[in-house]
Write a structure and sequence with these properties.
Helix content: 25-40%
Strand content: 25-35%
Structural class: alpha/beta
Shape: globular
Largest sheet: 6 strands, mixed
Bound molecules: adenosine-5'-diphosphate, magnesium ion
Radius of gyration: 18 Å
CATH topology: Rossmann fold
CATH class: Alpha Beta
CATH superfamily: P-loop containing nucleotide triphosphate hydrolases
């Protein structure tokens, strides 16, 4: 569904994303972890076209989208949920998702309304469809961010730390939604909450100083000395 080939992004002399390659298939959830400043969000910006890369290519469902803008990639089925929800606060919950359904898969009329209802149902927001989006509490703002990502992202969804700031129970709700939406899409989820990724990720990739330093089975990656070292700051030599 999505393929990154040797993505590089620098700001001035600082390389923020360094030769990152990977691919994800339908039904898969690739978890991404890494310390603050590792380049995770910049990688998403490179994937969805928010920033132009210095080198590398992005393919969406086999098509090279490297030269397309963010909204063009969105129209081809690439959706994204932001860490800080980006909602049209003056519109209703329903209208927020409808806007995505009309822009992304370009549905109109009854088909657009039906798809919007189905997405709101998956996200657990159907009872609040007519509320002003600006009036939603945090968990529902996160649900709406997921619903908006679903409305556009018919093929691939990028999730940037959507579980941050939620209670354990609320994180569980988000995990259940991700399980449903990954069935017919590929999902990439940046998240610091390890157990959330362990519950749904089929693979975990680790970024450190812009480089991919691990990519594999979630349990193996999380238990690896490399991850312990990066997160706990213990060097392998010291530990030995
Ligand atoms: N527009 C920008 N201009 C300059 N530096 C940036 C810009 N965006 C991100 N950076 C830098 O790139 C690094 C990686 O940032 P980011 O991708 O946000 O990391 P993460 O999401 O892993 O915390 C940081 O050092 C950040 O300061
Ligand atoms: Mg980030």
């Amino acid at each position: 569904m999505l393929e990154a080939e040797g993505l590089c992004k620098s700001y001035g002399t600082k390389t923020v994303v360094d030769k990152v390659s990977f691919s994800v298939v339908q039904g898969e959830c690739l978890g991404i972890i890494g310390p603050n400043g590792a380049g995770k969000t910049t990688l998403f910006n490179a994937l969805d076209g928010t920033v132009s890369v210095n080198r590398g290519a992005v393919k969406l469902d086999g098509q090279d989208v490297s030269r397309l803008t963010q909204y063009e990639r969105a129209r081809l089925g690439l959706g994204r949920a932001y860490q800080v929800p980006r909602t049209f606060v003056g519109l209703s919950v329903f209208e927020n998702v409808l806007a995505g359904v009309m822009h992304g898969p370009r549905l109109r009329g009854a088909a657009a309304s039906a798809e919007t209802r189905a997405i709101l149902d998956t996200a657990g927001l159907l009872p609040k469809a007519n509320m002003p989006a600006g009036a939603l509490p945090l968990l529902d703002r996160k649900r709406l961010e997921l619903a908006k990502a679903m409305s556009v992202g018919t093929k691939v969804i990028l999730l940037d730390e959507i579980a941050g700031g939620l209670t354990e129970e609320e994180v569980h709700d988000i995990i259940e939604i991700v399980k449903v939406l990954k069935k017919d899409r590929a999902v990439i989820w940046i998240e610091h909450i390890a157990h959330a990724l362990m519950a749904v990720a089929t693979r975990i990739m680790v970024l450190n100083f812009g480089e991919k330093v691990a990519d594999g089975d979630p349990a193996e990656v999380m238990a690896s000395r490399l991850v312990q070292e990066i997160y706990l700051g213990i060097s392998i030599d010291d530990a030995a």
